[in-house]
Specification:
Low-confidence stretches: none
Number of strands: 14
Distance between the termini: 13 Å
Helix content: 10-25%
């Protein structure tokens, strides 16, 4: 994917999912929705995690999709009110989320790693080191994970390099 012109564009469905996947799907349903035949990489960690081609990571809780993370460069692009959530300047991304929250009355939350989340939309904006720069890396999280301090404090912190 790499270039924005070639990057797939996904739609945010607040609290329900993103692109072709929705929270609560099984790993098989996620693979089918992403049109990924055969095996995909399963990673260790506190949650069941699958790494799919094109910069998509799926995290499961009790065998059901709970979080989707998109790579800053190779993952699909998701726009929120016209702002590109993947691959933007992290400071601009955080300011956009704060402005969006002020305008739309969204709930704002900072996570332990200083990432910013709009909890009612299920959007968490992290940053990812890509070469010499940092770029925004969006995570889309089911509401229960952002509502619970335990899950908030243990959101996927996997290292993503580009």
């Amino acid at each position: 994917m790499g270039a924005d012109a070639e990057r797939e564009s996904w739609e945010l469905r607040s609290g329900a999912g993103v692109g072709p996947v929705q929270f609560g799907m099984s790993p098989a349903e996620v693979a089918q929705a992403l049109s990924v035949p055969g095996l995909h990489e399963r990673a260790g960690g506190p949650y069941a995690q699958e790494d799919f081609p094109d910069g998509v990571k799926a995290f499961y809780d009790a065998g059901r999709l709970a979080c989707v993370a998109l790579d800053a460069v190779t993952g699909p692009q998701v726009f929120l009110s016209g702002f590109p959530l993947a691959g933007s300047d992290p400071e601009q991304g955080q300011q956009f989320l704060l402005d969006h929250a002020a305008e739309h009355g969204n709930w704002v939350l900072y996570t332990p790693d200083n990432s910013l989340s709009l909890t009612d939309l299920g959007v968490l904006l992290r940053s990812q080191q890509v070469g010499a720069v940092r770029l925004t890396r969006p995570l889309f999280v089911k509401e229960e994970w952002l509502d619970s301090q335990y899950f908030r404090d243990h959101l996927p912190l996997e290292g993503a390099s580009g």
